[in-house]
Amino acid sequence: MYSLVVENIKCIIAAGGLGTRLQEFRGNKSTKILLDVNGTAMINRQISQLVNWGMRKFVIITNPEYLNMIREVTLGKFQNLEIDFSIQEEPKGISHALYQARDYVEENEKIFFVLGDNFFENNPFNNFDVNNFHEGACIFTTEVKNPEEFGVAKMDIDGKVLSIEEKPTHPKSNHAVVGLYMFDNSVFNKIETLEPSARGEYEITDLCNIFVSENKCMNLNINGWWIDAGTPERIIELEEKLS
Hints:
Blueprint: E1 9-14, E2 36-37, E3 40-41, H1 42-52, E4 57-62, H2 67-77, E5 82-87, H3 94-99, E6 110-115, E7 118-120, E8 137-143, E9 151-155, E10 161-166, E11 175-183, H4 187-191, H5 204-213, E12 217-221, E13 226-228, H6 232-242
Parallel strand pairs: 1-4, 1-6, 4-5, 8-12
Antiparallel strand pairs: 2-3, 6-11, 7-13, 8-11, 9-10
């Protein structure tokens, strides 16, 4: 059914957030990743998106309370995929969530890291052969009108990332970093060097900036719409885009 298969890559989905802004939305009393989006649980819709992009091997990072529910929902739908699960015991940030997958990634595997509530109109690999990615990091960006509300990346003319700032007062560009990342296997050692931010989390921006400091971070611009489905308004917008 799908012609593209990405080789030697483990897809890690960050699905541990409870989504407090979505509590009670449509009667939701569990985690946002189990919310129905046009009749399909968000996590299953995310996996389907990623399968269409060529992913076949997954690690889902979840919280302890909803592990069993997420396992049941995903394994019941995707019986032919390789799906592992790892628990993020405490909400200590996106880099911390990624670190929980360290025991499931082989030394020769690349890492494609996805925030579970981010959805896209187009395959970001349409203009990029992911099989040629071997070292460093790759972020994905899109141009926005309100960059001060996002992580913002500045690139040179060749697409190499020069800096990434989280919600800067004076953005150096209008390129917002979306919830997709590629890393080589050195990423777990780099996470171990991070210090918590002022809000007590291990930030994905700080992690990416380590690769920037090593001159090993590139950028890909995505085309089409991008929705971070973390609020009721964004869920409704996503459903309208998908219908």
